[in-house]
Amino acid sequence: MNGKKRHDQQITLFLILTGILASGTGVLARQAEPERLLTTAVSESSFQLALKLKLPPRGAPGKRRTGAATRDSCPELANKNEPLTALVPGTNLGLTVAERPTFWFYVPYPPTNRLSVEFLLRDKEDNEVYRETLPLLETPGIISVRFPETTPPLEIQKLYSWRFSVICNPTNRAEDVFVNGKVERVPLAPALKSQLAAATPRERIALYAENGLWFDTLTHLTELYRTHPKDEALKVDWADLWQGVGLEYISSKPLVPCCTP
Description:
It holds the Pfam family DUF928. By secondary structure, this protein is an alpha+beta fold. The protein has helices spanning 2-48, 190-198, 201-210, 214-227, 232-244, and strands spanning 85-86, 93-96, 103-107, 116-122, 128-135, 141-145, 159-167, 177-185. It has a domain at 85-252: Immunoglobulins (Immunoglobulin-like, Sandwich), CATH 2.60.40. The chain has five helices and eight strands.
């Protein structure tokens, strides 16, 4: 009898322990579930913020890339498929709400030849609005051209022409390598202004993109990407932007200092 009693007690203890373990497993499973949900939520949030660039259904005369052939006085390109490139859409037209937008270019030439670049902006009547010649410092890489505050702001709904030249031979400007295109400042809609004021920096970039504001999208994304180069979401935005305008090779190029007068 005593043996049977001990056997019954062992069975009872086994069942109790089994129940406790099963209950504990359920608790652990329920504790892990919110973590999985949190991961999914972050992923979905990143997807929802993906850039949706909507460019205006019009273009302008211009040239955003130079040809593969090099001039005698210009340095040989390391990769002829990655020439001097204006960082603009293939339409050669970029919109902005900025009074003095920042222009971006990929310069493939090293600074060893003491090259200079010239940026020229003209209005629709071909009047010169701004001209600046600056030395190349740490190229090859992506550079920006910023207007000084003394420059008159762009007028709203007025088309401007810009030209960016690499001066390969100062004594013969016909040998310049250049890109050119158009920029237009548009009014900032009150609804968009309110959205921008309430948005995070990354949401702001998405809003600029959705409203077809190329220069504002690029400048804000570049500055944010420059200060947060390891941010995975920004890496995706950066690559998506260049893929969207057919300039995939730009995504791997460094941002280098140049050119503020």
